[in-house]
Amino acid sequence: MTAGALARRGFGDGTRAARLMAESGLDPGVHAAVIDSLSAAADSDQALLGLTRLVETAPDPDELRTALLDDPDLRSRLTGVLGASTALTDHLVRHPGDWRELRGADAARNPGTEELRAGLLHTVGADPNADTPVAAAGAADPDGPEHALRVAYRRRVLRLAGRDLTGAIDLETAAAELADLAAATLDAALAIARARAPQDAELCRLAVIGMGKCGGRELNYVSDVDVVFVAEPAEGVEDEPAAMRAATRLASAMMRTPGATDAEGTLWEVDAALRPDGKNGPLVRPLASHIAYYERWAKTWEFQALLKARPIAGDAALGRAYTEAIAPMVWQAASRPHFVDDVQAMRRRVLAHIPAAESDRQIKLGPGGLRDIEFSVQLLQLVHGRTDPAVRSGNTLSALEALSAGGYVGREDAAGLADAYRFLRRVEHLLQLHRLRRTHLLPSADAPDGPEQLRRLGRALGYAANPVTDLTTAWRQVAGEVRRLHEKLFYRPLLHAVARLPGPEARLTPGQAGERLEALGFADPQGALRHLEALTAGVSRRAAIQRTLLPVMLGWFADSPDPDAGLLGFRQVSDALGTTPWYLRLLRDDVRVAERMAWLLGTSRYVTDLLLRAPEAVALLADDADLARRPATALTAEAYSALRRHDSAEKAVGAVRALRRRELFRTAAADLLEVAGIDEVGAALTAIARVTIDAALRAAWSRVAAELGEEPCTRLCVVAMGRFGGNELSYASDADVMYVHDPRPGADPGEATRQAERIVHELRRLLEMRSDDPPLVLDADLRPEGRSGPLVRTFDSYAAYYGRWSSTWESQALLRAAPIAGDEELGERFTALIDPIRYPQGGVSDKGVLEVRRLKARMEAERLPRGADPTLHTKLGRGGLSDVEWVAQLIQLRHAHELPELRTTGTLEALDAAVAHGLLTADDGATLECAWRMAARVRGAVMLVRGRGGDSVPTSVRDQSALAGALGYRDEEDEEEGPAGRLLQDYRQLTRRARTVMERVFYDEP
Fold first, then answer.
1. For 407-442, what is the HEC assignment?
2. What pTM does this model have?
3. 257-279 per-position pLDDT tens digit
4. CB neighbours of 370 closer than 8 A, spacing ≥ 6?
């Protein structure tokens, strides 16, 4: 085979490759399969050089060449090892017969834990069945038992690498075998230590506790093996200090064996820095000392480290006693103050100490690296493992699977983390296999041999076409995804909430839940308990997530005015959405949504009713931006789209009313969560009413046109009045409107009016037809002649009426008139028609002022409901909405003709203009505005809390407390009157001041 052909096969230097093949006795015609296998290795040149070296040292080179040719499994294992690991190649050259370790059934088989332990103990001449194995006095290896142990260890690693590099085993199997192999090595090293110091062995019992990756059975090829030692005096030994000294000597000798350096190199370091007091503490402690330390002095990170603790060598019974004593403390550590904050801060400190030049290459400690995954999993385990033993695994992947099964982590998130973890660990293993050195850094492309190392690593991972680019791209993608998931899970607020719960309350049992419900203030604990049992019963994922959420949410329900109603509403919404994948995931992953939902359901029957009709709207609670008032243009576009989608007026308007329902929920939620003020609430409610009426009018027009077989012979406009026209609608407000139409040229006026009436009746029917969505009632009582007048008038009829019969009260009513739907040109003409009437030239006459004052006094006397407290009636009571609005309207009637700024339909805008032009003092304007805002908020909150409208502050203490809670009043220390008392005090104070201003300004002669 020519040098060029070899270069095309993937060898970097074809000429050198041809020479090495000749030296190793590979004939391209005979050994084509071997050459193919070499060219497929991670580093073809390295593999060929390694094979050449092995042939040179092999006792029988022909046997090796023949075996490679005849045994495809051996061929793939050996070339895979030679191409990936120079360190294992060096081992094969030192022990040329060890290539046979990669041949046959044993090479393909995964050894068990006991097989590894027994094999290494036999290597040092110890009996694996003995209670305390002791190495033989005379070792078979002339270099001593330590050397024999290291050689045997390397042979086991060689076998493992052969299976690993050919894809015969997965990451979990490889990491577990490495951990078991390390444990077996420590047991053998301890047997050697006992043989060297039998007097020490007689004085003590010594157990080795594996920590970190060894404890979790997820060890790397080269990693420090973290351990903790626990010892007790041997039976019959009463001198504990002497026993501890003996155990310390044994432990120290044991640690030196794998960490020593000889021709085989260092296996790995044994690190006992995770012991109590770290490196400053004694190497070995008795069990009681460990327990005392963890009960009194241990820091948060120490419990996190103990999560993976398990006995791996030495006295098995003592090891079990240690874990049984320590485990309960580990799984209650999350109850410690600031536990979650401490763990999060520790991760940030690790990131801060990474050198900047290494940050984007650190696959272990860097952003998006293994530590991000491990810290996320461990924090979730420690918080939820208090009450759920299923998640108490020391193995990262097993724990992640359990967390997913328990509903603590979403399936997709868990799968994403698991895939990323396997990828990163695979990269880590391949990096370490090369020279069997501890490293977690990706090679730098700028280093002299960086591209070559990256190419070898990429090919080992299966990136054949463009290994360097593909590896780099994959690493960046994985790191980005890990960082995203880490920040989502590791900083999840729910962890803080769950961790703050007292241990017994973190998991619900019927008895504990019943007691807690009563203590939290639920009026019907047994009824609430039935809801909880219904939500959490069974083994479904939904029930598992609910069991995590509800202990926390109970406290939030308790903070709301009506916890029982809140829990009932939550059950009803959950029943409606429980099978929807995103719902519980949203509550678990975004605790703000769960907390807001609990507050809203426990505060507002109005919101609960809306949410039950459209439970998917709960997704709006995730972000304040989602609760902001949507632009009218966006609402109009969505409404028109609904009209185009449906082929019947009923379906089309039904879709528009569903849009309105969603916007009502958005507005009410923003109101109760204090995301929006009363101005925004009024504007939002008005905007969605306008859009709904406009869309329904289009549907009604189309229906009538279809029935007539032609376009109606008139044009129609809907004019908003009252609070609707003033852009100040509340939740309980009907939409006050007037209807004006204008027959087309040549049309019969009577027929035009009949058609206009048909359209209006169809409009009202569509808006009020029975459905799950709240109706929109159109009230036309403010039209000329009130209920006695025609529902629909022509433009000319309005002009004639206002020219001859209009009274002052109608001029006042027109101050809030604003066209909102239908023919725009007709609306503009109508506005031009009424402007001289509502803004009369020269201002309202003295007679008109007197009429307004009389009407105001009459309204107070006749329209205030019998028995209503005039100081607590938000609309007609003293200092309420009517008082403020009539002051503003009288000022408009007097001065709007000369001051364009007063020509507004909004109350607060009119007050601002009056202050700006000196018609009101700034103090009077502020007093009136504060009272109006308070009355408007209270009136809206009554509807929100009770689910039905009401103009008075409720008289019952319970309703007053609920109202106060909805308005943001909270319990305060050293307070006698409570939130309801403060609400009444504030309301009366503000409205009393406003009444004083009203009486002075409204009845004062200018």
1. CCCCHHHHHHHHHHHHHHHHHHHHHHHHHCCCCCEC
2. 0.74
3. 998 888 788 999 999 999 999 99
4. 363, 364, 421, 424, 425, 428, 440
